[in-house]
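Hi support team,

I'm opening this ticket because the web form for multi-chain structure prediction keeps timing out on my end. I have pasted the exact lines I submitted so you can reproduce it. The total is 769 residues across two entries, so I didn't expect it to be a heavy job. Is there a limit I'm missing, or should I split the entries? Thanks in advance, R.K.
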Amino acid sequence: MYKIVSKKVLNSVTKMLVVRAPEIAKVCKPGQFVIVRANETGERIPLTIADFNRERGLITIVFQEVGKSTKLLGSFKRGEYVQDLVGPLGKPSPTDKKYGTVVAIGGGCGSAIVYPVARAFKEAGNYLITINGARTMELLLYRKQMREISDEFYVTTDDGSCGVHGFVTNVLGDLIQNDRKIDLVFAVGPVPMMKFVSKTTEAKQIPTLVSLNSIMVDGTGMCGACRVSVGGQMKFACVDGPEFDGHQVDFQELMGRLNAYRTYEAEADKRWINQQGGET
Amino acid sequence: MDKSARRRNLVSEKNEPKGAMRERKPPTKKVMMPEQSPAKRRRNFDEVALGYTMEQALAEAEKCMQCRNPKCMSGCPVEVPIRDFINLVREKKFIEAASRIKETNSLPAICGRVCPQETQCEATCIYGVRNEPIAIGRLERFVADYARARGEDLPKLPSKLGKRVAVIGSGPAGLTCAGDLIKLGYDVTIFEAFHKPGGVLIYGIPEFRLPKEIVTAEVDFLERLGVEIKYNHVIGKIRTVNELMTEDGYEAVFIGSGAGAPSFMPIKGMNLTTVFSANEFLTRVNLMKAYKFPEYDTPVKIGKRVAVIGGGNVAMDSARTSLRLGASEVTVVYRRSREELPARAEEVHHAEEEGIRFQFLVNPTEVLGDESGNVIGMQCIRMELGEPDESGRKRPVAIKNSEFVMDLDTVIVAIGNSPNPIIPNSTQGLEVSKWGTIIINEETGMTSLRGVFAGGDIVTGAATVINAMGQGKCAARGIHAYLTKKAAE
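Hello R.K., no limit was hit. The queue was backed up. Here is the completed structure from your submission:
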């Protein structure tokens, strides 16, 4: 059992939990994830470690409430316990290297995951440009924190309610158009966003890393649910990833696989909403 | 079996003279074990075989010749004193019989259910030369279940040696190794990656073949003996083998992490959304209880027409699970012939009884999908058996122009596993083979690293529960010898 020591509502659909997990906090690195099982009947879901505090033995997870499992997790209060937490899993982000100029892009909830990685890029001596995007202003995450660590900082919203009116790829495209020297692009967000970021950087062959949120069961390479085609090769996101070369990823296939259980997810969600008395 | 048949059977067995000359008698058969009828069980997850009654167990045990030089034991990888325990059954000392087995085998209720007895103890049974062999597996199951139901006393343990051993993985190899070590006086901690103990016994083998309650009970027994289990611990990630030895105070480590990475076929369509590894499919159903969705949150997707690729126990389990989840047509597709099926004979028999279809000498060449990535069919090619390959089995060879398409909506791939690379990759100096399996000294179980031992599928590649247990036992002996010698130095 893992105690929730603090909880924060980041916006109408996103929550943050800080959980006591000293053994994980001691060794985890940016880019790694944990598998969470909220309670005894719960599902195992992968969530990227958004932050950690080694001294206090804490890790932070940030998640968007998209279905039953994330809503259940979001219903937990401070002082309550998460049943299971496994990690740190996956390979860490390659942040220990100086690339030159790194563009870190976070879309929606992805910004929370990008933040610790971007910070590590900055600490490694890179010039850091961040692009923080969301559908609308209310859904922008980690705006303040991102700005603090960035050498250049951009905000985009699909509806123009904050920053640039448009997508993260508009800003990225402009940077590339203006012949800015970019040595690495790191993007986390919805699959279509990561796909278009990869497309944007492809012409100039700018190295692009994306963090994939495949369906997983065990998270240790045992079930193969998270398999993804990368450069025509079958890879397991849990052990070979979760980060891959965006130019090599078959995003179309990934989107199909992410939808595999959609009808079941909808059913579970509906049932959850009914159990909560019709409120979400 | 109906009651009158059971009675007939019992009478005929009971009338056999003990140890008499049997030449003129027709060969006897094993006392039948009651089962759920195929029609009923194909729609539920309850256990298929129901186990012997006391009368049936006595009748079967009575046939045992109590050979002076029994051969049955030589067929048992964990050295169960078979003749002795059967003798105790004959004396109606069932609890004692169970204790006798547990001296060498920590998991008798499990072995009685999932061991391939026909190729092990029962294959070497002397009574079995002229008759069906003594049903050793069924008797083992009977006494283990009997003792569990009545509550077993803990065996007397020697005083603690004050030495700690870490066991990685709580599957059959790890549990056996832990059980043997705790009985020798070591402090044993098992590190398990999942949230429940048992490894393949929990996530792999279905409820209808091995009720999870039984696995839990066997593990509970080990915990009562003092074995500590730490869940949610992926060694190689949260701690390394080296850290366990140098920082955490374990004097030896046993690696029993299993053959964790599912193999897929190098054909088109393997990543379609309704193609599943047997591992994923079975883990969802068994460990995560997806068959109880939405009471449990984990879903499992099953269509109407399912093909399972492979011919081992995992393939049989996947096929029979598909049926129980509501598939209307389930076909096992195997590239060799019936004779080469690696699955346990009883499982194949049960699968056929339940209506599973078999396509022998058929190999998939492509899985066909629609635009959204769902399976709509599978193209296959017919095979014939050619010259024997390295494994000694006849090599299947494709017959030209024999392609055909099966209409399907779900494909489950059960063609085996390769060793999970997490521990080899995170353990410096640990020697592995070109297949990624850990290399050990066959006698001691020790790896290339001093004090680090290994066994089970991570050493052999995918094999049976009982083989893994045999290796766990061997390593426990090796660890004891190593630590005894180290203490003396």
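A quick check on our side: The longest helix of chain A spans residues 110-123. Let us know if the file doesn't open in your viewer.
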